[in-house]
Amino acid sequence: MASFREQKIAKKKQEILRSAAAVLAEKGYHGTTMEEIAAQLLMTKGSMYYYFKNKDDILYHCHQMIMELSLEKIEEVVNSDDNPIEKLESAIKAHILLSISEKSMFMIMDRPYQKFTDEQLKEVLDARRNYAHYFDKIIKEGMEKQVFENVDPKMVRMIILGAINYIQQWYNQNGPNTDEEIADSYATNLLKMVVKKK
Amino acid sequence: MASFREQKIAKKKQEILRSAAAVLAEKGYHGTTMEEIAAQLLMTKGSMYYYFKNKDDILYHCHQMIMELSLEKIEEVVNSDDNPIEKLESAIKAHILLSISEKSMFMIMDRPYQKFTDEQLKEVLDARRNYAHYFDKIIKEGMEKQVFENVDPKMVRMIILGAINYIQQWYNQNGPNTDEEIADSYATNLLKMVVKKK
DNA sequence: TTATATTTTTACTATTAGTTTAAATAGTAG
DNA sequence: CTACTATTTAAACTAATAGTAAAAATATAA
Hints:
The structure is a homodimer.
Chain A: H1 4-27, H2 34-40, H3 45-51, H4 55-78, H5 84-101, H6 103-107, H7 112-115, H8 118-144, H9 153-165, H10 167-170, H11 179-191
Helix pairs in contact in A: 1-2, 1-4, 2-3, 4-5, 4-8, 5-8, 5-11, 8-9
The first copy, chain A, binds a DNA duplex through α3.
């Protein structure tokens, strides 16, 4: 039974993670103090240790949260009945929209090997490999079904992931383009790399 | 007269920057101590302060160094007599090859606003705007000369820069592809986004 | 060789941050 | 109201580090 109390704690943890991600994204991992994380929630840093083991642990759970969300989305796309062109387009757009709406979380996910060791690092890298693999799967499917040109799936995947993850670096809430426009433009342009011309 | 002594100091500074970049790239800015930077050079941290004002200053000069190199390269490309297709190809390849050969330097250039303030931040951002501008120039030239499709130059530039800067994240000296193969593959695929098909 | 300038090391300071602990407060069931 | 539990706080502890300054070592030149 997920008791009332357990639910309450889970909710509080989520709150802490969201708030922490915002500070961590702005100041960087080592640049952020536990006090800052706590202050933003009107708590004291001691309280943080009631909910999380330590600073690493907070970052790790941020990773977990966003990796789960990302994997869910792409699995849905991969398992759909769409053709590879539509799948690749959906995968790109979904990733972009998620990375914009969860900008802070995505921003703190760089260089995991600088922040984690052992078990945690393994988990993170596995999840990423997994995610990348789904992209490869779509690209290969497109090639098999002759709707994509013959390309090196790994290279194309790296180009796509690099391009879409870079958006966090320049995205601005008040910029001239809506999120959808950005997602559309990226998808359209990136698809031109692989889709066969008649 | 750039005296003998001044040259010696300049050389030593370069040595420190290169070595520092390697440590900074591996451990991150806040994760690297002045002592570690010094130790790798078989020096003590006191000496570091003889050559550089402080830790920021070291990072800043790393930035300067690589930005100068990058700008030189792209200016050369932009001012050449090549057609826009060749220019874009050269710009992409040059950036990739430089970012691989100077991997550490490039890796420490992320999130400048987390590391610099005021004057230094301004310098860094200006140089980047400048660099980005050259890409836009090539893209616009290609559109004017009707060899590129009609695209949003900013979006295409962001896609390209994101893709090529991501290489540092996965590049491995001992990987299956040579640097040239990577550069070729990236250039070929990225150009497909813009080059008009007959 | 001696005097001077440059470079490096050593020792120190002050600060800061992550974590732990014990005490205080709030909440709840009987 | 009471006793117990859960949560939060504040203080204390530890370890680490950026930066400084003066002394020591080394190189240079007269």
